[in-house]
Every structure is written in C-alpha cells, then in structure tokens.
Amino acid sequence: MTGSKDNITDLAWSPDGDKLVAASLDGAIRVWEPVSGRGMQVLGETGGESLLSVALMPDSGIIAAGGDLGTLYLWDQDSNQLLMQITQAHQDAINSMKFSPMGRLLATGGADGLVKLWRLQ
Predict the structure, then answer these.
(1) 1 is a domain residue
(2) CATH number, position 53
(3) d(CA 30, CA 14)
(4) Are 113 and 92 in contact (CB under 8 A)?
(5) pLDDT at position 17 over 60
(6) DSSP element (H, E) containing 67
(7) Paired sense of beta strands 38-43 and 29-33, if any
(8) In the prediction, which pLDDT does 2 show?
(9) Is residue 3 part of a domain?
(10) Sheet holding 115-119, edge to edge
C-alpha cells in the first residue's frame, strides 16, 4: 500500500477488517482497502502537525488522531470533515490512543507522562 509522503507512525484496523487506517508524519490520515491495497481516502488538515497515533471509534466512521504538538483530532470519514480539534490536549506529543469497546471514551497517552480520558457523545 502506497501513498504516504512521509513515515507511517501508527495503524488501526476497522472493527470489520475492511479498512486499514494510517497516521503519518506528513499530517495526513490515509485509509486503505487491505485486500486490494487500494487507497480509499486521505484525511488531514493539521496545519503541518505530524500525526503519531490513530484509532477508529467502534461502529462509526469516526477516526481520532494525535499530533506531535499535543493536538487531538476527530474526523468523520463518511463526510471527510474535521469534527473536532483540541489544541494542547496534551502538553507534548500524543503517542498512543484507544477507544473503549463501546466507543464512548477515548484514552490518549502523551509524552507528557499523562493518560487522559475523553468522553465522546
């Protein structure tokens, strides 16, 4: 699978296995169809911030990503729209993230040594 202009930093599978989502240092989220390797979509309006982590909300088209400047992003894959951007969600890079099984909480882990829980509606 190709298309990234820089290093891939994190990967996440969709719950049904039909999509593979990648975060990269070029600030874009790329969605691929893993069986064919076909690129399906490119998301990303980060203003130059590199993306280090990515997660998919279960049973939805919501993609979360964490940046090297501590910004948390949420995109709606279906509409290709940025839904939310929280600057300084962490004081340093967001290195990891995971949705709860029901998708109501997002846990983020940062280079600031903190784990934060975000309640999503």
Answers:
(1) no
(2) 2.130.10.10
(3) 13
(4) no
(5) yes
(6) strand 62-67
(7) antiparallel
(8) 60
(9) no
(10) 94-99, 105-110, 115-119
> What total number of domains does the chain contain?
1
Instruction: Write the single-letter amino acid at 75.
Output: W
Domain that holds residue 61: 8-119
CA angle 120, 73, 29 (to 5 degrees): 125
Asked, for residue 59, whether it belongs to a domain, the answer is yes
Return the ∠ at Cα 60 (arms to 91 and 88), rounded to 5°: 10
pLDDT category at 3 given cuts 50, 70, 90 is low
Alpha carbon distance 97, 74 (integer Å): 12
Element holding 97 (H helix, E strand): strand 94-99
If one counts every other C-beta atom within 10 angstroms of the C-beta of residue 116, the result is: 15
- Nearest Cα to Cα of residue 55 among 108, 112, 110, 111: 108
